[in-house]
From TrEMBL:
Residues 210-442 form the NPH3 domain. GO terms for biological process: positive gravitropism. One of its GO terms (cellular component) is cytosol. The lineage of its organism: Eukaryota, Viridiplantae, Streptophyta, Embryophyta, Tracheophyta. This is Phototropic-responsive NPH3 family protein. Belongs to the NPH3 family. InterPro entries: BTB/POZ_dom, NPH3/RPT2-like, NPH3_dom, SKP1/BTB/POZ_sf. Keywords: Phosphoprotein, Ubl conjugation pathway. Pfam families: BTB, NPH3. It is found in: Endomembrane system. It is a peripheral membrane protein. Pathway: Protein modification; protein ubiquitination. Residues 29-96 form the BTB domain.
Length: 442
C-alpha cells in the first residue's frame, strides 16, 4: 500500500476521555473547535494560517468567546484531526484508507494554495495523482471509502478518477500487468508450489485475461455497476472476460448462486443485484457468459420475481446458446406446483433458439453465400434436438404433465436433423407408460 508522510514534528495530540482533544504544549490553547461531539483545544496561529474557513469562523465570533462549531465537516473528528496536525507540522501518514477523508476535510476547511503555499489540498492531490491512482489495489480501496464521503468525494472528482484508473488498468494488455492482484479461483502454478523451470531458469507466468475480476468483487453494487460500465464502455475487454467478471460477482453477492437457488438474504436486495448484473451484460456480444451462467441467472430471476424484461432478456440469451446446456440445466423446479418442472420456461428457451436459427437462415439467404456459420448451425440443431429429446424423456416421468406441453416442445424441434430418433421414441414411450396409470393427465 502506498503512503505519504507529512510534517516532521512529533505527534503531541492528547486525549482526555472520548470527547476532548488537546495539544500538549506550554502555550495555553486560545481556540476551541467543536467537531460533532468532540472538543479540540487548539491554537489560532497554526490553524488560521492554513484554513480560510477557520479564519472566517473566528472573525464571526465574539472577542470573549473563541469557540467555533463545525458539525458538517466530511470525515468528522478523525479527518479534522489530520488537518489540524498538518497545520501544526506534526507527522501525519496518509494512505488509501484515510486520504479521501483528509482531502474532503481539507476542501471543507478551504486549505488552498492561495492561503499558504504547499497547503494540504495541494499535497494530497500530488499524492493521489502520483501514487494512489497509479496503484491497482489502492484505487479500489480509495473508491470504497468514497461512499461515506458523498457528495464531497463525487464533486472533487475522486470517484471518477478512481473509476477511470481501475477501468484503464483492467483494459490493459495482460502482458503489461506488473502489479499485485487477487486470483484464487484458478490457482496459478506458483501458488501450488509447482513453478515451471527450464534449464534452471524460471518461466515467466502468463497473466490471465480475467486477472482483475476478483478484486472488483469487493465493491458494493452501485460502485461495481459504475466501474463495470466504464470498463465495457472503453471497449478493450472481451465479452467473455466481462462474463467471467459478472459470474464471479454473482457468486459472491447472491447466496446460493452456484447451485442456482436463492438460499437466504434480502429478496429486494438480491433482486437488485441480479437485475444490475443482467443490465451489465453486453447487448451485442453473446460471448459474455456461458449458457450455464445465463441459466443460473434465469432460475434466480424466476424465483425472485424479477421484471418481465429481465427474464425475457435472459431467456433470449440462454436460448441463443441452448446447445451448450445439459438436461440437468433445464430441469427447473416449477413454482406453481401443477407440474414437477417449469415446462413453460424451457419451451420459451427452445422457441428462442428456433427464432435465432430462422433469423440466421434468412440472413444467409439475403447474402446469397454459404457461410461457415451454416455448418455450425447444423451442428447446433443436432445438439439441441438431442437435448430436447432427453429432456422430454425426463419430464415424461411426471404424471401431471399435460400432453399438449409434451407435444408442443417436441414439435419445436421436429424438423431438426438427428443422428437417431431413439431419444424421442424413448421419451414418447416413457410418457405413455406413465399415463397408462394416470389416464386423466392425457
Amino acid at each position: 500500500m502506498k503512503f505519504m508522510k507529512l510534517g516532521s514534528k512529533s505527534d503531541s495530540f492528547q486525549t482526555d476521555g472520548d470527547n476532548v482533544r488537546y495539544v500538549a504544549t506550554e502555550l495555553a490553547s486560545d481556540i476551541v473547535v467543536n467537531v460533532g461531539d468532540v472538543k479540540f483545544y487548539l491554537h489560532k496561529f497554526p490553524l488560521l494560517s492554513k484554513s480560510l474557513r477557520l479564519q472566517k469562523l473566528v472573525s464571526n465570533t465574539d472577542e470573549e468567546n473563541d469557540e467555533v462549531h463545525i458539525h458538517d465537516i466530511p470525515g468528522g473528528p478523525i479527518a479534522f484531526e489530520i488537518c489540524a496536525k498538518f497545520c501544526y507540522g506534526m507527522v501525519v501518514t496518509l494512505n488509501a484508507y484515510n486520504v479521501v477523508a483528509a482531502r474532503c476535510a481539507a476542501e471543507y476547511l478551504e486549505m488552498y494554495e492561495t492561503v499558504e503555499k504547499g497547503n494540504l489540498i495541494y499535497k494530497i492531490e500530488v499524492f493521489l495523482n502520483s501514487s494512489i491512482f497509479r496503484s491497482w489495489k489502492d484505487s479500489i480501496i480509495v473508491l470504497q471509502t468514497t461512499k461515506s464521503l458523498l457528495p464531497w468525494s463525487e464533486e472533487l472528482k475522486i470517484v471518477s478518477h478512481c473509476m477511470e484508473s481501475i477501468a484503464t488498468k483492467a483494459s490493459l494488455d495482460p502482458s503489461k500487468v506488473e502489479w499485485s492482484y487477487t486470483y484464487n479461483r484458478k490457482k496459478l502454478p506458483s501458488e501450488n508450489g509447482n513453478d515451471s523451470h527450464w534449464n534452471g531458469v524460471r518461466k515467466q507466468l502468463m497473466v490471465p485475461k480475467d486477472w482483475w475480476v476478483e478484486d472488483l468483487c469487493e465493491l458494493q453494487l452501485d460502485l461495481y455497476n459504475r466501474v463495470m460500465s466504464t470498463i465495457t464502455t472503453n471497449g478493450s475487454v472481451s465479452g467473455i472476460v466481462v462474463g467471467e467478471a459478472l459470474s464471479a460477482y454473482a457468486s459472491k453477492r447472491l447466496p446460493g448462486f452456484s447451485k442456482g437457488v436463492i438460499q437466504n438474504g434480502d429478496i429486494a436486495k438480491n433482486r437488485l443485484v441480479l437485475e444490475t448484473i443482467v443490465g451489465l451484460l453486453p447487448a451485442e456480444d453473446m460471448g459474455s457468459g456461458s449458457c450455464c451462467f445465463s441459466l443460473k441467472l434465469l432460475k434466480m430471476a424466476i424465483q425472485l420475481e424479477c421484471e418481465v424484461s429481465v427474464r425475457s432478456e435472459l431467456m433470449r440469451r440462454t436460448g441463443q446458446r441452448l446447445e451448450e446446456a445439459t438436461v440437468a440445466d433445464l430441469l427447473i423446479s416449477s413454482s406453481t406446483g401443477e407440474t414437477i418442472y417449469d415446462i413453460e420456461t424451457v419451451q420459451k428457451l427452445v422457441e428462442a433458439f428456433v427464432a435465432q436459427e430462422h433469423q440466421s437462415l434468412l440472413e444467409d439467404e439475403l447474402q446469397e453465400i454459404r457461410s461457415p456459420k451454416m455448418v455450425s448451425n447444423s451442428s447446433s440443431k443436432i445438439k439441441v434436438a438431442k437435448l430436447v429429446d432427453s429432456y422430454l424423456a425426463e419430464i415424461a416421468r411426471d404424471p401431471n404433465l399435460p400432453l399438449l406441453n409434451f407435444v408442443n416442445i417436441a414439435d419445436l424441434v421436429s424438423s431438426f436433423p438427428r443422428q437417431s430418433h431413439d431419444g424421442l421414441y424413448r421419451a414418447i414411450d416413457m410418457y405413455l407408460k406413465v399415463n397408462l396409470f394416470y389416464p386423466t393427465c392425457i
